[in-house]
Specification:
About 20% of the residues lie in helices and about 25% in strands. It is an alpha/beta fold. The longest helix is centred in the N-terminal third of the chain and has 13 residues. The structure holds zinc ion. Zinc ion (ZN) binds next to helix 4.
């Protein structure tokens, strides 16, 4: 039985690296995969999934109007892999769940659970509701606790706590922090030098 998988994490936990590795594992067995990332993510240029380890490959992009249905997919598709899945609409998550169970294609989504305000992304909330298999990918706050939240930083390094949920910038605009640092007034985890885990 095929499933909808959601691999969620804070920023910079290696989601894109894990996605590219998963794709490679299928392909080295001669199986066909299809990769998508959000159309408005310009971190590595349009239609590219890039990992911080230097791997990258061109991929398809999805926008709010992209339809994930079996007839739009290759017949011999072995797996659908989606990066930046927090930007899926709830309706698209429903399509992917149907695709997994009726179209018999495993769908693996990688994305952020919460935004810089600690609010859910609609796509992630729907994935947490419908995904058959959930896994948190771990990353570490600058204080060495587990990071599960994100802070947004202004160009001068100061923390930003208000604004639009989606504001595309470099990954250095965001930092993964633990809840204690997220709620502390000085956002220590946000201000510290990136160090080992930045
Ligand atoms: Zn911390």
């Amino acid at each position: 039985m095929s499933k909808l998988y959601f691999r969620y994490a804070a920023m910079n936990a290696g989601k894109s690296t894990a996605l590219l590795q998963a794709a490679h594992n299928y392909e080295e067995r001669g199986l066909q995969v299809l990769l998508f990332t959000a159309a408005h993510d310009d971190r590595t240029g349009p239609g590219v999934i890039g990992s911080r380890l230097g791997l990258q490959r061109p991929v398809a992009t999805f926008g709010p109007d992209t339809e994930f249905s079996r007839e739009h997919m290759p017949d011999d598709l072995a797996c659908l892999l989606i990066d930046e899945a927090q930007f899926l609409t709830p309706a698209q998550v429903r399509q992917l769940h149907r695709l997994a169970h009726l179209g018999r294609v495993p769908v693996i989504c990688y994305g952020l659970r919460s935004d810089f305000r600690g609010e859910a992304f609609p796509g992630s909330a729907q994935l947490l509701t419908l995904a058959d298999d959930l896994e948190e990918m771990k990353t570490i706050c600058a204080c060495a606790r587990k990071a599960s939240m994100n802070v947004r930083l202004a160009a001068d390094g100061r923390r930003v706590t208000q604004g639009e949920q989606v504001e595309i910038g470099g990954n250095d605009r965001y930092r993964a922090v633990c809840p204690a640092c997220f709620y502390s007034d000085d956002a220590a985890g946000a201000k510290q030098a990136p160090g080992l885990f930045g």
